[in-house]
Design brief:
This protein is an alpha/beta fold. The chain is about 25% helix and about 25% strand.
Length: about 350
């Protein structure tokens, strides 16, 4: 019997500071084991590049349990079932979930969700119609709740969450101030997403100065996936009864002192202004995923929301695509396309 080999990317070294260099990863090839009852074998088509796994590659457990060296790098993906011992997921079904950085994934079928390829390209199940879009949907619609005429500031606005958040806030009639990193992102937010004002944290003009000019009436809603000094600069401008929702701190993910950087400040301002500061985890809304995804897919079909994707070709280039998450310039959902997607 012919042995099926699986290609994967494994973590070989930890790194506390900055984006992980390519030397921390290794491309591996090994036989695929037999699937067990309840499992499926998934041929991966796209991998999602998300910042959170960076916390599991630091070499200490202060932020999250560390990924054991030699393990396949964790990550979401979408692909097609090529072997199944899970009745609910027959061969040919498209599924999304935690597949890891590998061409073939043996996965418990209960951890996957079926994807309908007739609604939209399957890659959108990792972006607009997946965790990124859902995070934007719930942070805007359920937590920030912008009202017409209010000023909404969105950090990381060119990313997979931020770009959708901008569009949803605009639909609500808010004035959207988008914080970006570079002129390519700025043009994208202004020309494609139609943000009202763009603030570029990479230029010489201090961020605080740019924000003060962009928000002369203060800030009513702040949606933040970045943290760090950017977070502090916006917090200084919050209005009375403003709403701030924090769903990520990507600015600190590659820093050795990340834990200390995440201590809240401006506490007296929060009291004086009666600001509602809330943390956000997408898992809290699991019961509402189906209805939210249906609404987002309808808006996509109607042209009410746009879906931008930046695609890197080839599993072997996943480490470089992952490192690019932590540098300015790219926009939209960051994906790696595997060879299977072309068939």
């Amino acid at each position: 019997m012919k042995t099926t080999l699986n290609r994967s990317v494994r973590l070989t070294a930890y790194c506390a500071d900055g984006p992980l260099p390519s030397s921390c990863f290794a491309l591996d090839e090994a036989p695929v084991g037999e699937i067990e009852d309840g499992q499926v074998l998934v041929e991966t088509h796209y991998l999602s590049m998300d910042p959170f796994p960076r916390l599991r590659m630091r070499g200490d457990d202060s932020m999250a349990p560390q990924l054991p060296l030699g393990s396949v790098v964790i990550g979401r993906g979408v692909g097609q079932v090529v072997a199944s011992r899970a009745p609910a997921l027959p061969v040919g079904t498209y599924v999304a979930g935690e597949l890891g950085w590998q061409a073939l994934a043996r996965v418990d079928g209960r951890t996957l969700r079926a994807v309908d390829p007739t609604l939209a390209p399957v890659s959108t199940s990792l972006g607009l119609l997946g965790p990124s879009g859902l995070t934007a949907y719930f942070t805007v619609m359920h937590h920030g709740k912008p009202r017409e005429g209010e000023t909404v500031v969105i950090s990381g606005a060119a990313g997979s969450v931020g770009s959708v958040s901008c569009q949803l806030a605009k639909q609500a009639g808010a004035r959207v101030v988008a914080i970006v990193g570079g002129q390519d992102q700025a043009h994208y937010l202004l020309d494609e997403i139609r943000a009202d004002v763009v603030v570029d944290h990479t230029i010489a003009t201090p961020l605080a100065v740019q924000l003060a000019r962009a928000c002369p009436q203060g800030v009513d809603v702040f949606l933040d996936g970045v943290g760090g000094s950017l977070h502090e600069a916006v917090m200084d401008l919050l209005n009375v009864h403003a709403r701030a929702v924090v769903y990520g701190v990507i600015a600190s993910y590659g820093r050795a002192d990340a834990a200390s950087e995440m201590v809240p400040s401006r506490l007296y301002q929060l009291i004086q202004k009666r600001v509602r500061l809330s943390g956000f985890l997408i898992a809290d809304h699991a019961d509402e995923f189906a209805s939210a995804s249906a609404e987002l897919s309808l808006w996509l079909a109607q042209g009410r929301v746009r879906c931008a994707e930046s695609i890197t070709e080839g599993l072997e280039n996943a480490p470089a695509a992952f490192a690019a998450l932590f540098t300015p310039g790219r926009f939209g959902k960051q994906l790696v396309r595997l060879a299977a997607a072309a068939r």
